[in-house]
Amino acid sequence: MLSKSKIFFKGTVAVLPHMLSVIPFGIITGAIGVELGFDPILVYATSLIIFGGASQIIFMQLLSGGASSLVAVTSVGVINSRHLLYGAVLSEYLEKLSFIKKLFISYFIVDQGFAESNKYIKQNKNLSNPHYYILGTGVTLWLCWQLSTISGIILGSFIPEELGLKFAIPLTFLAIIVNDLRKLDYVFVMLVSGFASLILFDAPFKSYIILSPIVALIAAFIMLRLKK
Amino acid sequence: MTWFSIIVSGIVTYFSRMAMVALIDREMLGTKVKEVLNYVPAAVFPAIIFPGVFYNDFGSFVEITDPKIYGAIVALIVGFYSRSVIATIVSGLLSYWFIIFILLE
To answer: Which end of chain B has less neighbouring CB within 10 Å, N or C?
Structure first.
């Protein structure tokens, strides 16, 4: 029987390899926020309040490019809707917790923490306190994210504009999905989204950022139906 | 206004994390919806990548010789084979810088 702190620590250790991507991503997020012209406090506030790397970059990029708040907020919602999926899976392990504890632990649900927790808890079915593992992954990732965005904010003010660091934005997102290029159905959805975004780019209020994923998800839905 | 947007975005994001855990019964999300949600990253991120590569800062289509296109191709190939996030980003940036600072100088 593992103690609570040991389970927590196991979660921490499990996400350590992910720091290789989380820390540079955090630094880029902070640095880009500053380069886009946002007040350092605002850039950091996105890490604390939104706490979702990809959505933070898009949020700042859209607002600095003249998008309306509604478009920026909706895009954050679309990008982060994937958490619904994580929550749906994790809720099974969190069922016994009190409502307050559920509310607390929810803040720490992130991509890499979800992936590791789900893997571990599935392999250790009779773990007594699985939420400590989830918390171990989430709190560790949270802490690294906060520290790395702060580092990026500080570094960002020293990075010359000629470097064109903005190009790191598409590259970062390419890095997130590049593994899915091995699956044809994912490639199809990506191409639909990509071409839709090029066609819809001039749509008002930068709404291409919401319309293209919707078009791609409809395509995914039709694809799933045809497959059966 | 920016503060307001950040707070609303924070609430929306927190809701996406909390809804299935604390509010909604797991069964309410049907298998069809779950299957489609799997594709959310594939549906969202190319809409950021394509314009980031193929449009310039002024919102017009780049030329076929644009350094960003070649940087992205290098990153794509390196990322596909290395499966490494850092290698993808670094190779893309380095090849981009190589083109703009050395080849085009």
So the answer is: C
